[in-house]
Amino acid sequence: MEETTDSADAGSTRPRRKIPYGRVAYPAIGYKMGSRQMVTTVMNPVTYVGTVGDRENWDPLQGTGTNRKEDKNHRQAIAKYIEETEDYVLNSVLVYYSPNDAEFVADDPENQISMGTLYVRPGAKAKVGDGGHRTSAYGDVIQAHSHGDEVLERLQANGQPVIVVLDDDQARRAQDFTDLQQNAKPLNASIAQSMDRRQAINRMLLEDVLKGGLAPVFEGGKRVEFLSDSPGQLSAKLAGFKTLRYATGTLLIGTSARSSRAWDEAVAVEIATAGHDATLQKMVDFWNGFGALPEVASAMSVDSGVVKLRKTTWLTSANVLYALAAAVHLVTNGTGMTVNGAMKAAATIDFTRAGTTFHGTLVEPATYDEDGNEITKEKALTGRDAWEGAAQKLAAAIRQS
Q1: Looking at the whole model, is its pTM more than 0.85?
Q2: What is the pLDDT of residue 338?
């Protein structure tokens, strides 16, 4: 192919490298990570999808591919997010080009980090190292709107950051993928959910129940753990935001939703159908009823009371809170009983660890021989089956009160 000489810098006699004629040019920033040339550029999503090759799953026998097995639900969730969210945010994707297919020319070759131009051979396809689900999701949205509409126009006007690695060593690509996954630490659920203000349940809990002070037991949020999903044994906090959120949603919809996505959708529909005020009243009545339970009220009135509450009762257990919320939903849904009335009835239930309320559901009791010697210790049981079983027992106790 005929080569052309790129123009020299203004006022400089230093010649620039010759770039093969017809290469596609992308403004970029070049830098090194170790020995390899890295380039960061930005393309609109439509252009980006056209520059990458087919998805490659990892084949350890052939030593090809860098992506995990495709998760169709994850791909669909990203596509829905891109399609429905105008101000969406996606991380950069990592792609690879062979040095034969792409070259970076720095504006200032003597600077280790420099603006410049990425030149790519026409028709060359990048291989996605990290970001396969995002790439496929973009493709799905673009194909669905290929006739042209506001969604496609938005994508054509948006940018997608792309990190390009000029490297054709397949073994290093696979190692990069492993390193990226190992070095990435996803947010715990409590942090992520408390940051997500698009979901109505999160907004209501944060703005109304906690910050609004409508549930004094949480002291404006000071009694809720946001940085981890479960408070430590000596923590003065009652529950993690993840637990608070899931118990509240379970109060609203019960236990019918069996996946996170279905649960989110069902809770959103319930709030939209019932309305903000009616839903908020249920939330407030439940958590104020929780604060009025004798053991909780006693704990909140003394120093280190929550530590003692955690040690002597099950009331700070996430599974027990889920069970109580599910029980209240059972006894109030389609009946004349109110959430407030159900929680007053729940005040008669024995939630202490010394009691037997949760034996056979959330607690496997200790066993003893004929002489009274302990054979096996008491064991707490977890999982959905356990707390749903406990919910049935609590509902029966509430109905009888």
Answers
A1: no
A2: 97
